[in-house]
Specification:
- The complex is a heterodimer of chains A (148) and B (188).
- Helices cover 18% and strands 49% of the residues of chain A.
- Chain A is built from 2 helices and 8 strands; from the N terminus they run αβαβββββββ.
- In chain A, a hairpin with a 5-residue loop joins strand 4 (88-96) and strand 5.
- The two termini of chain A are 40 Å apart.
- With 188 residues, chain B is of the alpha+beta class.
- Chain B folds into 2 domains: 2-61; 83-186, no CATH class.
- In chain B, 11% of the residues are buried.
- Classes of the chains: A alpha+beta (148), B alpha+beta (188).
Chain lengths: 148, 188
Amino acid sequence: MTQLLRLFAAVSLLAVILPAQALAAPKATVAIDIVQASKEPGENDPRVAKFRSQFADFNYKSFKLVASRLITVDEKKATTVDLAGGHKLNVTFTKAEPNGRARLKLSVPGVLDTTVSLKRDGSVLVGGPALPSGNGVLFIPVTLVEVK
Amino acid sequence: MTNEREEIGPLLSAYGDGELSPVEQRRIEALLAADPELAQRLDDQLALSSALVKSLDAEVDEIDFSGFADEVMAKLPPPTVSLASRIRTFFENAFEFRKLQVALGAATVAAVAVVTVPYLRGDVGEGDRIAALVMNGQGQEADRTASAAPPALDPSASVLSVETAGDYETMLFKTSAGTTIIYVREVQ
């Protein structure tokens, strides 16, 4: 009888815990780097060295890391990141896909709306939003760190 | 004379049908001129032969041959062609009528191989391995490509849609390292 009560208690506990876990919205952790690119010669920020191969095909001569952000976004929620030059980047975690992928909507208001699908450690580079006064353009590597 | 008549008896019928050689024909004609009884015998044979032909023609005219060919064909078994023969015929026709298509297909495969093999082998420089597509602001590809390189098969990042605002246009790149680049610029 005691064993039967223990079994009943375990089943009841699982019945409470499992739906709560199932209902918990997945979260996407996204790394966002903000890089200022200029056609004017200048010092190259060593912190952007890991992106140099991605910038190599563009006609810019100097690169500077403005900021790095690590954000966590709930599914179907959005987070806004300030870029530079008045630009903002809205990141919406629209859908958790199979195999740990995440579907993200990236929006730079007045410039660009795009939806991408990233797997863990996958990156997409948004480039080109111009900075005021001819101070070059922005390059924004967006990397999916994980989906939980 | 009697022996000679019996000897030429078989030849007389052939003479009447015009089947003798010139030498034999002249010989028979000489005999006929010298022997009236033999000439009478030839006339009798010719008359009998003529009557027989007329009689047979009359019988043939009374027979209805309409549909005869159809009845004969209907009684013939259907033509059978062996499977091997049909297969051989199929391929012969295929090669005969599709030579051009086969040649074009081979040329296409060769062209694709020429374009893609250097990329697979990494023989193309970094700058050349970047593919660009210009988007017209509504996520539709315009007809401009920076190079002939096909986009790398990179499952780590996929661009599902792109839309630009205002006077911006989008260029979609994918580097050999697999990085997807969405580059926007103002339309001049």
